[in-house]
Amino acid sequence: MKKILTVGLLTILVSVFLTSGAYSKDVLIGISKIVAHPALDALERGVQDGVKKSFPDAKFDLQNANGEMSTASQIAHKFKAAKVDVAVGIATPTAQALVNSIKRSPVVFCAVTDPVGAGLVKSVKKGEKYVTGTSDMTPVRQQIEMLIKLANIKTLGHVYSSSEANAVKLAKIARKVCKELGIKFVESTVTNSSEVKQATQAIIGRVDGIYLSNDNTVFSALSSVLSVATRNKKPVMSADPSSAKKNPVFAAWGFDYYKMGVATGKIVSRILKGEKTVDIPTKFMTDASDVDLIINLDVAKKIGITIPEDILKQATVIKNGKVVKK
Fold first, then answer.
1. H or E stretch including 320?
2. Burial 21-58 (b: 16+ CB within 10 A, else e)
């Protein structure tokens, strides 16, 4: 009888241990980002914080590919050899590198614009056997329409990386939106960050403003775009509010990338607790609180644009280099 009671007690304790979210061994999460810039850095922090909500003692191997696909592949092989419990790829190129290398353990993509087009999943309605994650498909039409409300835009310039699948996808959408709105679309492509300034200079005299989508190559050289645009008194609409809080961007409307990172970290935790990736659909950030509109009044003054009061009421406003309204 005593033996039966002991076995029963052990069973209860094990059950409590597992359902409490505890993990039976040290947790190691590999996080690979394609390059360092404010949005991806915010995602990285968010992923860690999201995991730590359930696994406070989790360890993280943080890696930066510095914009090089060969480095992203090396990082993927490193994570595979280290047998990380979950590998997280921040942005499309690193997520693709992880999925191509790691075949028998979970990979979670983070902030991938078009996970189906990138070959990561067959459908956003469910995951693959070892793959799922979050998407940052940005509201391109609304961003361009907002810029039109703020400035007299007849011709829109767009600088993007031809080597990033996410950037090419968003350029296609922007091209279509401009056609529907009756706006001329002028594009300039780059293959690496060193070409961004020249690409911006090549079109700045022919456009009324610049639109920047989710493009890691361009955002890693954001200051180059901004210096050219401001000098020529042309507004820049960015899809990345994180960068706009630290750089003189005229306007930005897009996702709170820290929150997206936390959402990704929560997916990682669900997997660590035993949930199968195939049962986890791609997560989209759909709440109004997930999106930020930022207006920089300092830049607006420099380029001679007055912001309507109704838009200022919706926005986080930057003035004299500081956030004065949230």
1. none
2. eebeeebbbbbbbbbebbbbbbbbebbbebbbebbeeb
Question: Quick one: pLDDT at residue 15?
Answer: 45
The burial class, CB within 10 Å (0-12 / 13-18 / 19+), for 78 is middle
The range of the structural domain enclosing residue 180 comes to 140-254+289-325
| Token pair in block for residue 124 | 């956003």
Beta-sheet pairing, 155-161 with 236-238: unpaired
pLDDT at 200: 98
Structure tokens at 313: 């009421």
Scan for tokens 């409300």, then name that residue.
149
Q: Mean pLDDT per 10-residue run, the chain (326 residues)?
A: 46 44 72 93 97 97 95 98 98 96 97 94 97 94 95 97 92 97 97 96 98 93 96 96 91 92 98 98 86 94 95 93 80
CATH number at residue 207: 3.40.50.2300
- pLDDT given at position 49: 98
Cα(24)–Cα(4) distance, integer angstroms: 24
Residue 211 and residue 155 in contact, taking contact as beta carbons nearer than 8 Å = no
Token pair belonging to 98: 């992880």
Residues near 3 by beta carbon (within 8 Å), at least 6 away in sequence: none
Q: Are residues 186 and 319 in the same domain?
A: yes
**152 lies in the same domain as 91:** no
Under 8 Å CB-to-CB from 47, ≥6 apart: which residues?
29, 31, 88, 90, 110, 261, 262, 264, 265, 268
The length of the chain is 326
Q: Which two tokens stand for residue 55?
A: 């696994």
Number of domains in the chain: 2
Q: Are 272 and 288 in contact (CB under 8 A)?
A: no
